[in-house]
């Protein structure tokens, strides 16, 4: 299995920038065509509106962004050939010769207008805050100089990473004139255009290569014969159907989950790539007064009762990673010393911590305090966590805790966990970008901070990290402090992260944009 690394103008190449492999193409391969599968129809082709992995995949190939991320997660040139500045102000120098799909040249003022729309209040873009923060900003263009300047109201060191994300794609002037049409009629500078006449909504989409697209970091189209002239994107909801079509050769690339993975990995006609996550699912504790888990000793006892390796196995059937922090090692500023702050699983040590917190076991073995049994209401999501919630339930019962498990769906997370009826919950943290800042809404402030966590050290470290220059050692030093502070207080318990597997027919190579996202623009076929 051969592989290589390259960067490209899609988001989050840090997932390894890894190539799904690639050997000699079968004789039956049509080198100018490829067929890929997405698991569901797109929600919108307007970059600022889409929030699904399938929407991101299409947006990534139809549009470009100012910057890209290399295999280490570092910003590299895309539409912008260079930039300078700090966390407060950045000036981007645009490439020359970039044109929109309708032939219109992309100017600096046009790019600035697209970025202004991203964060405008009336746009209501759900992911804008991940690129430009919440304090506000301005985007201005200088056509004579060919520069775009972003000025932040408050320093925001995640700007460059955020600008590489699909929702920060540059929409061309014709699209900005009719934003309602953008939902199904893209208007970008990407290497492919959507052939609407040959496409059927919800069934399949035909992408056509632009012969004049020569500015993305994967190289000029005219010098890249492996890039297919036509890509068909098929919507196949069922994983087993997709698996069968991979083996029969009617599709070339697909993400496959569930029970079909093992048989596909054994297939000699296929290559595969395991894509690791940016964020790790963690146990969230209720910190409100009056709850047993408001006591740090109780939180430590719970953490000590749980074998995180066993939880990972239960959640991912052995195809996952045991977490030490809320971010994975793929993300810049990941702090490996978090592992030193996590207790080794020990039932007796967990019981000792409960006794230290004032609890004593009753005649039935259940710990109680002031005549009240220690009862925990556990929230789990088997659709994302397998049997891990059941494992946690049994592990806590084994140390003398009364536990009630309530399983919910992903869609119910916000409504259930914003309510009062739980003490512990396995939180499905799965950020769409490789940034340590993505956890902030869930562990500080109001809104999505369902556990009502208050950690002054975390808040100070986070603020200092965002104010630091993007490439400075200070930035990661502060994010390290933030990660450690959450575990010193046992505000959360990192548990596990799932690994997703992409399969391809031999002779097809591609890169990954994120845990669920393939970079369609990176597809190459043949030798």
Strand order of the largest sheet: 14-21-13-20-18-19
Report the portion of residues in β strands: 15-25%
Compute the number of strand runs. 24
Low-pLDDT windows of residues: 1-29, 218-222
Distance between the termini: 13 Å
The chain-level mean pLDDT equals: 91
Radius of gyration: 24 Å
> Can you summarize the main beta sheet?
6 strands, mixed
Question: What's the tally of helices?
Answer: 16
Oligomer type: single chain
Morphology call: globular
Measured as a percent range, the helix fraction is 25-40%
Question: Which class do the helix and strand fractions yield?
Answer: alpha+beta
Descriptors:
about 525 residues, alpha+beta, six-stranded mixed β-sheet, four-stranded mixed β-sheet, 24 strands
Q: How would you describe this protein?
A:
The chain is of the alpha+beta class and 527 residues long. It is built from 16 helices and 24 strands. It has a 6-stranded mixed sheet with strand order 14-21-13-20-18-19, with helices on one face. A 4-stranded mixed sheet has the order 1-10-9-8, with helices on one face. It has a 4-stranded antiparallel sheet with strand order 4-5-7-6. Strand 4 (80-85) and strand 5 (89-94) form a beta hairpin. The longest helix has 16 residues, at 473-488. 51% of the residues are buried. Mean pLDDT is 91; it is low at 1-29 and 218-222.
């Amino acid at each position: 299995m051969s592989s290589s690394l390259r960067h490209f103008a899609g988001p989050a190449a840090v997932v390894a920038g890894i190539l799904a492999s690639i050997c000699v193409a079968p004789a039956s391969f049509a080198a100018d065509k490829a067929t890929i599968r997405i698991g569901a129809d797109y929600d919108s082709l307007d970059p600022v509106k889409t929030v699904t992995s399938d929407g991101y995949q299409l947006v990534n190939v139809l549009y470009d962004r100012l910057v890209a991320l290399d295999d280490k997660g570092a910003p590299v040139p895309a539409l912008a050939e260079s930039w300078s500045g700090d966390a407060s102000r950045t000036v981007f120098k645009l490439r020359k010769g970039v044109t929109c799909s309708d032939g219109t040249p992309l100017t600096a003022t046009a790019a600035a207008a697209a970025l202004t729309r991203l964060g405008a209040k009336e746009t209501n873009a759900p992911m804008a805050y991940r690129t430009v923060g919440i304090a506000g900003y301005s985007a201005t263009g200088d056509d004579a100089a060919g520069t775009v300047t972003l000025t932040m109201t408050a320093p925001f060191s995640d700007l460059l990473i955020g600008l590489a994300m699909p929702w920060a794609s540059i929409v061309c002037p014709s699209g900005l004139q009719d934003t309602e049409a953008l939902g199904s009629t893209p208007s970008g500078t990407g290497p492919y255009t959507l052939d609407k006449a040959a496409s059927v909504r919800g069934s399949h989409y035909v992408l056509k290569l632009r012969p004049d697209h020569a500015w993305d970091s994967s190289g000029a189209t005219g010098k890249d014969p492996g890039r297919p002239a036509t890509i068909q994107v098929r919507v196949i909801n069922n994983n087993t159907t997709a698996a069968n079509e991979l083996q029969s050769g009617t599709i070339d690339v697909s993400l496959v989950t569930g029970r079909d993975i093992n048989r596909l990995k054994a297939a000699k006609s296929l290559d595969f790539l395991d894509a690791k996550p940016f964020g790790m699912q963690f146990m969230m504790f209720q910190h409100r007064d009056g709850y047993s888990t408001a006591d740090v000793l109780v939180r430590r006892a719970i953490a000590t009762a749980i074998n995180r390796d066993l939880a990972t196995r239960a959640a991912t059937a052995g195809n996952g990673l045991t977490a030490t922090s809320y971010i994975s090692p793929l993300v810049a500023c990941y702090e490996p010393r978090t592992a030193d702050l996590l207790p080794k699983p020990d039932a007796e040590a967990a019981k000792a911590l409960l006794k230290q917190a004032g609890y004593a076991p009753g005649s039935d073995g259940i710990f109680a305090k002031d005549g009240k049994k220690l009862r925990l209401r556990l929230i789990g999501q088997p659709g994302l966590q397998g049997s891990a919630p059941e494992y946690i339930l049994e592990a806590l019962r084994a140390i003398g805790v009364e536990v009630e498990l309530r399983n919910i769906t992903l869609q119910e997370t916000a409504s259930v966990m914003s309510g009062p009826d739980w003490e512990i919950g396995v939180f499905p943290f799965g950020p769409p970008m490789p940034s340590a800042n993505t956890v902030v809404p869930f562990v500080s402030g109001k809104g999505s901070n369902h556990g009502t966590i208050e950690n002054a050290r975390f808040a100070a470290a986070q603020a200092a990290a965002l104010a630091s220059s993007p490439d400075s050692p200070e930035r990661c030093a502060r994010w390290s402090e933030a990660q450690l502070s959450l575990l010193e207080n046992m505000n959360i318990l990192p548990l596990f992260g799932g690994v997703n597997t992409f399969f391809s027919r031999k002779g097809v190579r591609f890169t990954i944009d994120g845990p669920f996202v393939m970079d369609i623009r990176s597809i190459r076929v043949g030798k």
